[in-house]
Specification:
By secondary structure, the protein is α/β, with parallel strands linked by helices. It has 12 helices and 16 strands. The two termini are 31 Å apart.
């Protein structure tokens, strides 16, 4: 089990390695939709040190699909954000640029994903990200903390007196580090005032659908869940999670997958223009992320570091040019 713990730390650290300095950041040509002041604004905040792929992409797609929000992905600096597994996301705006678009007002919705790279680099406790959150959290209509995004809010001192949840595996540690919060288990999401916090991974979809219900009406979230093909229709109350622990056989398999790297499959992914954000997350979270079952390499047929735009306007930077076909399987 010691080998597994060491493997988890090194694997997660490697997944959020900063983009190479040679990466050409296409900031000048980034597509950013015109701001509609008649619509509420939702922002997914990112750490340039790394943010968790499903925590970022799933709420973004849910909110963007409604067509009723101005939706942005914003970071302290307009440089590629590692999402894990070799996928980099270019922020649409810096936090300063977002403030300029909002004329200093707080966005109606702030989404805070887990930021493993920020924890590694000590960026949760200081700097532009924490300062920005402290200025805007109280003024936001809804704050959506996804998975261990609760850690980001905790480090900023924004959880005191709140009922909150997070990924089940982190709650015991968070309870010790942030004792003034009331930590809840067994729920996909917990609502406390303007804060909605969710459990791990896809529970962020439930939380984002709840945000839609709050801002657009109770029927809107059900219709949207059907449109995006989300199977969990228990949207009227905080749905319970039946199990939040690893069985012995699960723990043993997880330890082997993390502690020993040989024999893993290689997956060569070539994101196509207009790909769905949840579709991307389903590959880059499951295979190199949650179970460390494969090594994933992103490819671009358009040339080295050629940007790819997703269905809802996010810009991704693949890690490799597709100059030769991927090696045969087997």
């Amino acid at each position: 089990m010691i080998a597994a713990v060491v493997g988890v730390s090194s694997t997660i650290s490697g997944a959020y390695e900063p983009a190479a300095a040679s990466v050409a950041s296409p900031t000048a040509s980034l597509p950013v939709a015109a701001h509609d002041p008649a619509k509420p604004t939702a922002v997914v905040v990112l750490s340039n040190a790394g943010s968790q792929v499903t925590d970022v992409l799933a709420p973004y797609e849910v909110l963007a699909t409604t067509k009723e929000f101005n939706v942005y992905a914003a970071a302290p600096v307009k440089q590629p954000v590692p999402l894990g597994g070799g996928l980099d996301l270019m922020p649409q705006l810096t936090l300063d640029e977002l403030d300029q678009r909002m004329n200093g007002r707080s966005p109606e919705v702030i989404v805070v994903p887990a930021m493993p790279g920020a924890r590694r680099d000590g960026a949760l406790e200081q700097g532009l990200l924490g300062d920005w959150l402290k200025r805007h959290i109280s003024g936001a209509g809804t704050v959506l903390s996804v998975c261990n995004g609760a850690e980001v809010l905790g480090e900023a001192g924004l959880l005191d007196g709140r009922r909150v949840t997070a990924n089940w595996a982190g709650i015991d540690a968070f309870r010790k580090r942030y004792p003034n919060a009331q930590w809840m288990r067994w729920l996909r999401y917990v609502e406390d005032g303007n804060l909605i916090s969710t459990a791990g991974v896809t529970s962020g979809v439930n939380g984002a659908l709840r945000v839609v219900a709050k801002h657009l009406g109770e029927d809107a979230d059900r219709d949207l869940a059907l449109r995006i093909g989300y199977p969990d229709q228990r949207l009227d109350t905080s749905p319970e999670i039946a199990a939040q622990r690893l069985a012995i056989n699960d723990a043993a398999l997880y330890a082997l997958m993390v502690g020993f790297g040989w024999g893993k499959n290689s997956i060569w992914g070539s994101p196509q223009r207009w790909v769905g954000e949840i579709e991307l997350a389903s590959v880059f979270d499951v295979y190199p992320g949650q179970v460390f079952a494969a090594d994933v390499t992103t490819l671009s047929a358009a040339g080295p570091k050629a940007a790819i735009t997703s269905r809802d306007g996010l810009t991704f930077i693949p890690g490799t040019a597709w100059t030769t076909p991927p090696p045969p399987i087997g």
